[in-house]
Task: inverse folding
């Protein structure tokens, strides 16, 4: 039924391929150089920004997409395919794309329609324009230059090098170690056997990245240059280096060149220097169009296939003989797999182009899948460069090409040619995720080839070309790759939410979001290996040692560890290869496991187990001690300090191990960054405990109270529920509610529901009175039961009779305070009933609707939300501190009163429940930062926030795609009703609250404030980005970043600021003053202490009341900003809509100054040409008058404006 | 005190003395230590003889003030006229809108009239049968939680003088003051600042006895009203009207479950109806139509998705976010 995947759309490049014929007719072989313009792919800035964080990566972008456009072969093949496919078929294909039929069925081939369409969009945007004139011309020129380079006579190594340096000022890029002085063999240059374009450009699987397009040109060295044994002892590489230097000399010496040349190591592999050619600045200036000339050509070298015996170059062979030994058969020789594979890779450049090309012929979707793979890898920071994981686009393309073929032994291929690009992509990801290539190597056509077992080394052995494709990978980069693949696989399996962004668009590699902890080790401190003058040679060993030591030491405390080294750049052709910059440092990123990372004691092997115990001791040194445990076992164990001063346990372990296994110098200079934000909130650290600990005392007090209330005997009705409905009771208030010494100031809301009874009155107002009666009774009984309970009934909403009007404050003996309200479900029915009354007048209807919404929120949603968050906070240890940190962020920017705490909690919960593209945050910092990151990208005008709070692993009553669709429909309906976003600005739904407006209805926040939130989040993210770029570039240290910067904003953004007098802020709560003033009288002091519980002020927040009144008095004239948790400023902003000059009328809704207007007196209105302006000075005086002693100072920033 | 206009802007422009039929009275505001850095700006009242569309008996002796200060109170306005504007005696002041709107505590919100009509109005609620109205008076109303309210910024007030002569005198004095550029100073009644909120906080928790008394009074009144309604209904049930019809009214039983029961019964009946209908895959055409529908649905969804992606594309690049509040 489904049309085969081959009916996929041929993207716009079909026209350009038609034009190839003309290009091909010449002697050149630059496939795809036709002058035909492919559809200009207009760059999507947003998207590209995400892609292009590190624009200079392109400089290293040759990627080693080895391969070769063999003369005539590929172009002909392409032509054939085009001609054999009748035009009608092409048309049909195109047509199919336009009719929905195609889309109707894509859901099976793609994840969803939406996913497919977005993939199409992405592909369109990242594909570069093939066949630009400038590129073609440059390549033609380059080719003819190379062809004209004269041969050079064979010379001894040193003579050759010297003469080249003398004649052309080219320093031959010999690999390390340099050729021995007494080398007998000679170096020479002969005309190349072939010059071809290769790599992603010719295969049309390139992707735009930054602005630069890189093209690989492979020069085949004539086989006459090499001898049979040249594969040994770097001889091939010396010859290759000389050959490259000769080409460089040739280009440099050619008269009409407008090119700049540099040496680089191909993928950071110092054995393979390459030449990078760019149009020189002068030529760009002359040529005018800068963007068109933005490309580079990488000149690679290959000796051609079958020059050396592949038998000798198998991974387990040794090709670098130790000095003084020429015994080939010696079995004690250490295998040199990296060397061998590098040589083989050089030989098989052409062969791989063939393979990749065959794959793209075999499967129509192959090219697109390659591009998807590229994008995926790039967002995760993987690159073919040895320092960036050694898994790049070429490896992706080659693995996919090989998986498309069936191996003789293994039967059916893993990928099918009929797959769509998405299916190919997903299946490849699946292959990477599920198959551990370090344990079960993948061998293609290589059943009989023995593969050495190296710890942590993955093998994907291509027997036909006899290369391990993953030879550049390290144990840790392979682990990261699998982790990312697993993660992506998981999110692709998610049918509820669209995971396109997390798969392709989001930059996953950003260390600030990705890692929980970071460690920085400066290279200067490492011991210089005396044999090597350049630390580059010892770096791999250092990294390996670091990796094995740290992974062994940290064990299951961490889930991943990655090591990154400073980036390498190319060098001038006239100078020799530069040494590693000793100013650089090793950056180690750690993802911790919250369940284990704070464990205080590590158990080692038992004492009887002598061998293991000895190894344990050797590893840990003096830190290891023998301990006897409760169960009688005597174990080697490690005990870590819990003191704050000694840092987190992970840090302690790392410092200890680095000191023990490297040197004290390294350990001292190591800088550690872990969960750096948690110190901003009280008891925010997770060291040794769960994030919910600070709330324990309140939870205990609550359960005691619940028991006491349920235990009351003479209640007129039985109690059905006692539910908590407060952020303090769901671990999410910024400050932990109280401790033993202090009275809790803000009572925690709880809701009581009595069993149903027919004796309730059937009238809204009478119900409210009955509630008060109940509360009075409850208070009386509770105080009677336990005289230590302080109770009092309070009134609220007195001007809105249909809303809840009363509450009972209960202050427990321990100092906890609760605010109890009665939930009576009949209210909802009566309100609803009243709303259905058609005769109801507007204002009453509005008030009733408001009351109903408030009822639903206070009595239904908040308790349900509280319960859900309680569960989540116990499930995710880092959730509670992350929420508190995020709320603190909102509070620091004076936004608290505009955002419901529940809304903020949903935001943070989203980062934990839908963590893709990362995994669930395991410390407060990452949870908070990822929330900010998401916030900065949230386009709330067009998309809702949907959180599935039930998203348990079990998935019992988690949301389905249908639920999400229903919520989206509701969201769209709101947007249609309220186009200007006057009522609902942010839409936040969850499985508990499919309405989506419970927390944000009635412009809470207003559009202006929501925009402010986004701007602030974006500012924070850009600060983080700068830090990150600094980290990557090595200019900022991990500890240089000050978390506080994200929490401070200039007050001058506001129009004016009221500085609150100190006693009314959280910094100057009067407690200490009271004590000081009474210090002289001991008896008074004692009395004070017993009454110190100062219950009078529980729930008393004068500044909040003040701001609330200001809000009501000034309506929409002024927007108010205040941190309700005792902030020291109240900021106001004149609403620009009302500050202008207006005509006079009686009711303007704001205090005004009359001014002589220029408006002519209009008819019927003889106001004498008087206009009015808002009376800012007068209003400020009013505000300050009202505030009285609450205000210390009123500062104005823009009265003149 | 300087008699010159304290308006610093007077250099730039003359402040008009009247607009329409209103006289503009600048009020010098008290200097405040917390607001030292700012030049003091006067507050402006717009005053005219009261002239409502529907004249009331008091209209003759009233002045209408627009743009009253937010801390205006009856006392403050009385003092203003008594001490600085001709000494006219004010009987009462009716404010248009106050915060917190405790006028609404005892009147219906739908009732847009200004002023505090405490305890006078019957809760109209809605003309609905099961609504029982209780007349709230000082005894049954809940205790107040604010000592006094504030005026909404830019709202108005009607000042009722003891007699016509006082009103007239005040009006003349006021115009003279404006013309002569005399300084009129605004003196609030005080009681603002933290004290106000502390007071509110303690009023929020009324003494138990007071509260109990008010509740008891209310519930007694409520029970009475309920009994009265039942009697009325019983009467309506029993006595035919002049055409000989008996009005059908709810009654007989009292209890909150009636409406729900009716609804539940209705739902049950509907359920039954549904069961009776033939299953929707019984006939072939039904299957066919269903299939068609499903296909249409898929097609529609695809179209929607396509539109969504297109919109997304259009949106991207447009997202320009600038610095701070300038982007409002």
Result:
């Amino acid at each position: 039924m489904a049309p085969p995947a081959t009916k996929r759309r041929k993207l716009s490049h079909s026209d350009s391929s038609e034009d190839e014929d003309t290009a091909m007719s010449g002697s050149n072989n630059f496939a795809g150089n036709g002058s035909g313009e492919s559809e200009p792919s207009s760059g999507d800035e947003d998207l590209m920004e995400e892609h292009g964080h590190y624009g200079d990566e392109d400089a290293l972008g040759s990627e080693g997409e080895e391969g070769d456009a063999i003369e005539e072969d590929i172009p002909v093949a392409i032509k054939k395919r085009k001609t054999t496919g009748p035009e009608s078929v092409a048309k049909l294909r195109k047509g199919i794309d336009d009719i929905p039929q195609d889309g109707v069925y894509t859901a099976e081939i793609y994840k969803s329609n939406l996913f497919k369409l977005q993939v199409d969009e992405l592909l369109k945007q990242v594909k570069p324009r093939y066949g630009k004139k400038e590129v073609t011309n440059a390549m033609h020129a380059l080719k003819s230059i190379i062809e004209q380079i004269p041969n050079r006579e064979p010379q001894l190594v040193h003579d050759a090098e010297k003469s080249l340096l003398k004649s052309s000022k080219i320093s031959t890029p010999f690999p390390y170690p340099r050729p021995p002085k007494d080398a007998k063999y000679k170096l020479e240059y002969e005309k190349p056997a072939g010059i071809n374009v290769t790599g992603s450009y010719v295969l049309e699987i390139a992707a735009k990245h930054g602005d630069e397009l890189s093209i690989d040109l492979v020069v085949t060295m004539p086989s006459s240059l090499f001898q049979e044994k040249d594969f040994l002892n770097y001889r091939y590489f010396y010859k290759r280096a000389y050959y490259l230097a000769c080409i460089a000399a040739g280009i440099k010496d050619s008269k009409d060149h407008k090119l700049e040349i540099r040496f680089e190591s191909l993928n950071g592999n110092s054995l393979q220097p390459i030449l990078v050619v760019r149009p020189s600045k002068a030529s760009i200036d002359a040529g005018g169009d800068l963007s068109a000339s933005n490309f580079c050509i990488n000149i690679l070298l290959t000796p051609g296939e079958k020059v050396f015996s592949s038998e000798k170059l198998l991974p387990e062979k040794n090709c670098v003989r130790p000095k003084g030994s020429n015994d080939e058969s010696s079995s004690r020789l250490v295998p040199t797999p990296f060397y061998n594979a590098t040589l083989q890779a050089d030989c098989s450049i052409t062969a791989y182009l063939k393979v990749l090309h065959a794959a793209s012929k075999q499967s129509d979707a192959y090219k697109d899948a390659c591009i998807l793979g590229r994008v995926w890898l790039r967002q995760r920071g993987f690159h073919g460069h040895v320092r960036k994981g050694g898994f790049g686009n070429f490896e992706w393309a080659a693995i996919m090409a090989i998986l498309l073929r069936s191996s003789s032994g293994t039967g059916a291929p893993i990928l099918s040619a009929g797959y769509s690009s998405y299916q190919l992509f997903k299946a490849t990801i699946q292959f990477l995720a599920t198959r551990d290539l370090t344990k079960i190597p993948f061998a293609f056509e290589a059943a009989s080839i023995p593969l050495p077992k190296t710890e942590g080394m993955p093998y994907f052995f291509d027997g036909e070309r006899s290369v391990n494709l993953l030879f550049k990978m390290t144990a840790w980069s392979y682990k990261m790759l699998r982790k990312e693949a697993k993660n992506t696989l998981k999110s692709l399996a998610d049918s509820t939410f669209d995971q396109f962004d997390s798969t392709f668009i989001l930059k996953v590699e950003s260390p600030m979001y990705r890692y929980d902890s970071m460690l920085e080790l400066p290279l200067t401190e490492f011991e210089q290996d005396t044999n090597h003058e350049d630390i580059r040679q010892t770096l791999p060993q250092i990294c390996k040692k670091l990796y094995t030591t740290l992974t062994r030491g940290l064990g299951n405390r961490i889930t991943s560890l990655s090591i990154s080294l400073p980036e390498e750049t190319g060098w001038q052709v006239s100078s020799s290869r530069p040494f590693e910059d000793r100013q650089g440092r090793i950056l180690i990123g750690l993802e911790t496991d919250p369940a284990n990372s704070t464990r205080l004691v590590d158990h080692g092997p038992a004492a009887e187990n002598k061998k293991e115990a000895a190894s344990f001791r050797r590893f840990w040194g003096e830190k290891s001690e023998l301990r006897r445990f409760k169960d009688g076992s005597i174990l080697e164990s490690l005990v870590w300090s819990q003191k704050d001063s000694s840092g987190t346990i992970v840090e302690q372990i790392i410092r200890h191990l680095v000191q023990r296994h490297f040197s004290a110098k390294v350990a001292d200079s190591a800088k550690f960054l872990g969960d750096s934000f948690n110190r901003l909130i009280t008891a925010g650290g997770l060291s040794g405990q769960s994030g919910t600990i600070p709330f324990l005392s309140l939870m205990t007090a609550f359960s005691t109270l619940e028991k006491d209330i349920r235990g009351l005997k003479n209640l007129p009705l039985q109690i059905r529920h006692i539910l908590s409905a407060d952020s303090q009771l769901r671990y999410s208030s910024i400050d932990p509610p109280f401790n033993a010494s202090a009275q809790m100031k803000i009572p925690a809301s709880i809701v009581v529901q009595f069993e149903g009874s027919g004796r309730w009155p059937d009238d809204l107002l009478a119900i409210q009175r009955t509630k008060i009666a109940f509360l009075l009774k409850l208070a009386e009984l509770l105080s009677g039961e336990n005289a230590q309970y302080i109770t009092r009934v309070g009134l609220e909403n007195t001007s809105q009779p249909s809303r809840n009007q009363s509450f009972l404050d209960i202050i427990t003996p321990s100092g906890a305070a609760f605010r109890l309200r009665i939930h009576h479900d009949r209210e909802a029915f009566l309100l609803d009933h009243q709303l259905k009354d058609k005769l109801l007048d507007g204002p009453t209807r509005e008030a009733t609707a408001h009351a109903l919404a408030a009822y639903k929120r206070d009595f239904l949603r908040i308790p349900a939300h509280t319960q859900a968050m309680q569960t989540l906070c116990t499930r995710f240890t880092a959730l509670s501190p992350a929420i508190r940190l995020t709320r603190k962020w909102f509070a620091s920017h004076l936004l608290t009163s505009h955002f419901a705490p529940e809304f903020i909690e949903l935001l943070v919960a989203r980062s934990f429940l839908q963590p893709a593209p990362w995994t669930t945050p395991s410390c407060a910092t990452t949870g908070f930062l990822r929330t900010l990151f998401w916030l900065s990208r949230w386009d709330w005008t067009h998309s809702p926030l949907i959180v599935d709070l039930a998203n348990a692993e079990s998935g019992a009553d988690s949301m389905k795609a249908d639920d999400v669709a229903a919520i989206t429909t509701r969201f769209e309906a709101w947007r249609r009703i309220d186009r200007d976003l006057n009522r609902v600005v942010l839409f936040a739904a969850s499985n508990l609250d499919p309405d989506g407006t419970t927390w944000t209805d009635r412009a809470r926040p207003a559009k202006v404030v929501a925009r402010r939130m986004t701007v602030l989040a974006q500012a924070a993210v850009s600060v983080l980005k700068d830090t990150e770029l600094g980290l990557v570039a090595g200019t900022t240290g991990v500890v240089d970043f000050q978390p506080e910067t994200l929490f401070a904003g200039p007050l001058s953004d506001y129009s004016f600021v009221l500085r609150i007098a100190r006693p009314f802020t959280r910094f100057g709560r009067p407690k200490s003053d009271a004590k000081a003033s009474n210090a002289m009288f001991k008896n008074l002091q004692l009395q004070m202490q017993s009454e110190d519980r100062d219950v009078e002020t529980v729930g008393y927040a004068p500044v909040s009341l003040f701001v609330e009144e200001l809000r009501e008095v000034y309506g929409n004239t002024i927007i108010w900003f205040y941190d309700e948790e005792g902030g020291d400023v109240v900021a106001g902003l004149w609403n620009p809509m009302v500050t202008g000059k207006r005509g006079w009328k009686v009711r303007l809704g704001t205090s005004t100054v009359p001014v002589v207007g220029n408006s002519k007196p209009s008819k019927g209105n003889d106001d004498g040409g008087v206009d009015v302006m808002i009376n800012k000075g007068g209003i400020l005086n009013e505000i300050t008058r009202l505030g009285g002693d609450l205000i210390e100072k009123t500062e104005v920033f823009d009265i003149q404006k | 005190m300087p008699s010159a206009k304290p308006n610093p802007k007077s250099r730039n422009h003359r402040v008009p003395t009247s607009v329409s039929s209103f006289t503009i009275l600048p009020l010098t505001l008290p200097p405040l230590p917390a607001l030292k850095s700012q030049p003091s700006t006067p507050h402006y009242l717009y005053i005219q003889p009261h002239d409502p569309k529907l004249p009331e008996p008091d209209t003759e002796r009233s002045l209408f003030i627009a743009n009253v200060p937010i801390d205006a109170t009856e006392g403050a306005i009385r003092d203003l006229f008594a001490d600085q504007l001709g000494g006219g005696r004010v009987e009462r002041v009716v404010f248009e809108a106050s915060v917190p709107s405790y006028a609404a505590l005892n009147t219906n919100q739908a009732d847009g009239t200004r002023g505090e009509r405490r305890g006078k109005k019957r809760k109209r609620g809605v003309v609905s049968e099961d609504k029982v109205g209780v007349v709230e008076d000082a005894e049954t109303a809940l205790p107040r939680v604010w000592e006094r309210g504030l005026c909404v910024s830019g709202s108005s007030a009607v000042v009722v003088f003891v007699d016509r002569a006082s009103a007239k005198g005040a009006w003349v004095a006021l115009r003279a003051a404006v013309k002569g550029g005399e300084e009129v100073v605004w003196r609030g009644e005080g009681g603002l600042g933290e004290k106000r909120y502390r007071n509110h906080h303690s009023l929020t928790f009324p003494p138990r006895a007071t509260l109990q008394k008010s509740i008891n009074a209310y519930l007694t009144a409520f029970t009475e009203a309920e009994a009265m309604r039942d009697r009325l209904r019983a009467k309506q049930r029993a006595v035919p009207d002049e055409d000989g019809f008996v009005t059908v009214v709810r009654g007989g039983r009292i209890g909150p479950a009636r409406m729900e029961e009716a609804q539940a019964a209705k739902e049950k009946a509907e359920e039954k109806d549904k069961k009776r209908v033939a299953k929707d895959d019984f006939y072939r055409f039904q299957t066919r139509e269903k299939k068609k529908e499903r296909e249409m649905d898929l097609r529609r969804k695809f179209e929607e998705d396509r539109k969504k992606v297109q919109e997304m594309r259009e949106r991207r690049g447009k997202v320009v976010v600038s610095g701070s509040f300038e982007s409002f």
